[in-house]
Specification:
Elements (H helix, E strand, L loop, with lengths): L1 H12 L3 H12 L41 E2 L2 E2 L3 H16 L17 H7 L5 H14 L4 H9 L3 H12 L11 H4 L5 H7 L1 E7 L3 E6 L5 H11 L2 E6 L2 H13 L4 E7 L2 H15 L3 E7 L2 E7 L18 E8 L1
Parallel strand pairs: 4-5, 6-9
Antiparallel strand pairs: 1-2, 3-4, 7-8, 8-9
């Protein structure tokens, strides 16, 4: 027994926490900046070490299943170590922001009416009439009043919004509701006024907004899916048709849970990871939501980027803080 104890002790001593993280990064192709899924290489699972900083215990338990649970490409050998990994990810996503704050910095943009006027698509009297009607009613968008009052078609209104937001106007070419329903939870699609539209070249995800861009949503989806997101606008009628089709299609199963604070958020994620035992996970923050996606079997990670090829063996958790 003394000999065995000495051998184990010396094995641990040459693998400090930093070395464990470096080795796991080399083995599993970790890219924390982009949040990509592990690269599947032929490495024996027995070589995987616990990714929690300061943990040496996982190395002394060769009987442990090192294939799962995996949290953001790191295996956690115990509840304590999984909590350490999850806590670091929650702090990363929270940053210095106030929990529950979904406001974005205000950006001054040329009003849509002036954009349309500058393009020569409406006259000054038409703009004045539309503005007066909008003020009198106390509701509605200026584009809607211009369409109603002077017959401006929705394509030109969308092109004007594109000029206002300096973004392209997209088309429905290549749209598949069945595949786009797998990109993100439907609650986020409905709340933030967007739809995933199509994937091009296995590297680029086009995301359509109805009337204004939302950089925080686009960044969160980009980090989750491992694809570059190109945001643009889609004319109103086409947008509504596409969104209805995506919301009606089968998507990834979602569990929604409001939580009071960051500690409750961390505990909820740890509980989900331990109960589900995923082979891959990713956590991103989108405004007040924390979106945890878990891949339950290796076949579920075989999609484009990290978009699953089907709703099977994938599970989403949405945590609403505050």
């Amino acid at each position: 027994m003394p000999i065995l104890g000495k051998a184990v002790g010396s094995a641990i001593s040459v693998r400090p926490p930093r070395a464990l993280a470096v080795r796991n990064a080399e083995i599993f192709g970790r890219d924390s900046r982009q949040g990509m899924l592990p690269q599947h290489v032929a490495v024996p699972e027995t070589q995987r070490m616990c990714g929690a900083p300061g943990c040496n215990g996982g190395w002394t338990m060769p009987w442990k299943n090192r294939r799962r649970p995996i949290f953001e490409q790191e295996w956690g050998c115990s509840t304590k170590c999984i909590s350490t990994l999850v806590g670091a990810a929650v702090r990363r996503e929270t940053g210095d922001a106030v929990l529950g704050n979904r406001d974005e910095p205000h950006r001054h943009r040329v009003p849509l009416g002036l954009v349309l006027l500058a393009q020569g698509w409406i006259s000054h009297p038409q703009l004045q009439t539309a503005l007066e009607a909008q003020r009198a009613s106390g509701r509605g968008r200026i584009g809607d009043w211009l369409a109603q009052g002077c017959g401006l078609d929705e394509e030109r209104i969308t092109r004007g919004l594109g000029v206002q937001w300096s973004c392209p106007v997209l088309t429905m070419d290549g749209f598949s509701a069945a595949s786009m329903a797998l990109v993100m939870p439907k609650r986020l699609i409905a709340e933030f006024g967007l739809i995933p539209l199509r994937i091009a070249g296995s590297t680029l995800l086009y995301m359509a907004f109805e009337e204004r861009m939302n950089a925080a949503v686009a960044l969160g989806v980009e980090q989750m899916c491992g694809l570059k997101v190109e945001s643009g606008l889609l004319p109103g009628t086409q947008f509504e048709q596409a969104r209805a089709a995506v919301l009606a299609a089968d998507g990834v199963a979602v569990k929604f849970k409001p939580v009071a604070d960051r500690d409750a958020l961390t505990a909820g994620i740890v509980r989900a990871v331990e109960q589900t035992q995923p082979v891959a996970t990713r956590l991103v923050r989108i405004h007040q939501y924390y979106w945890l996606r878990m891949w339950l079997e290796s076949g579920a990670t075989a999609g484009v980027g990290s978009v699953p090829p089907s709703p099977e063996d994938v599970e989403d958790h949405l945590f609403l803080v505050g």
